Amino acid sequence: MQLAERMKLVSESITLKVSAKAAALKKAGVDVVGFGAGEPDFDTPAFIKDAAKAALDKGITKYTPTPCFPELKQAIADKFSRENGLAYKPENITTGAGGKACLYMAFMALINPGDEVLIPSPYWVSYPEQVKLAGGVPVIIAGDEAKGFKLTPDQLEKAITPRTRVFLINSPSNPSGIAYTPDELKGLADVVAKHPQVIVFSDEIYEKLLYGGLKFVSFATLNPALMDRTLTFNCHSKSFAMTGWRIGYIGGPKDAIDAINKLQSQMTSHITSFVQPAAVAALTDPRGAQSVEQMRVQFEQRGQHMWERLSALPGVHCVRPQGAFYCFPNVSAHFGKSINGAKITDAISFSSALLECDHVAVVPGNDSGFDTHVRLSFATSMEQIDKGIDRIGAFLKKLV
Ligand SMILES: Cc1ncc(COP(=O)(O)O)c(C=O)c1O
Which one of 3.40.50.720, 3.40.50.10240, 3.90.226.10, 3.40.640.10 gives the CATH number of domain 62-286? Predict the structure, then answer.
């Protein structure tokens, strides 16, 4: 069948190919250690599930308003005000089917063909693809590993052109696991503030997963010029272990939110009715914050352990994770070597050989702008972390 021209803009996901191979091996009975998952290994807290079950029993099974029920809008506005110091009113809030759909709708609603979107690398795989689908031009600002992958104000200033429409910032970050300090973010915010044509998409979905005592700040609070020029993205996926529920939300200027609502009203209409009371419960019941913190403490221990073990491997260099649940080691010291006749030339061939020979699934960094790195998720048990890193060590020894 003839496909739409726009499908040529979207790249095939390399990550999905590696995941498919790992899934096939597992199905064939192979004991694969999976470091690929981008989701918490914890279950959704029971009180949140109970709220959804109660909503079903109450018959909350019909259409809802497009942004969502007023109770959820209010709960999100209250969360932004209480936790982030963002004075959004309910009219400044909308929801979407996960953080991913929120970002996509925002690109569609706010950028024109040819508009440039600045994306620091390494980046989450979907950003450039969504920008292209919306007719925009992704402009990648290459991260410097020696600077912990952190974009500097100077780099940002140099990347801004008269065509720049959006600056996208994601801290804590997928896939690098880095997180900016409030001062570092303030430096970037002050640069954006000088350029009135630039708006900000701040992807804050990993805000709760910060380590080493780092304090989270929302980008829009960092310069008075930015509140009216920033869209703040968040979701329940990672904080409350609710990836499958598809609950994302946006805070932003009313005209932008109205445009996104107009778009959504012609697309999916709204997020699922009976998950909305559960989304309210997660944000308002004190058990929500408690369960997030319990998860965070575990992730911090696992991240530290994975990072220490990775750093002890020969030819592996890893920036210490400060947030989210990812280590992003540089494995390029092993490129040019071979195993069983297969040559390792980049992160894809490294990941494929590691999976085939020693049954460890990692995500090659190619889709994130780094073909020298692989991403390992530590959203898995300490036992699995040790088993997987032992295997990676054995794999590296076999490379010649
Ligand atoms: C940085 C980042 N933004 C957005 C998303 C999308 O989140 P959701 O699962 O809520 O769509 C992800 C998911 O992995 C992510 O890592």
Answer: 3.40.640.10
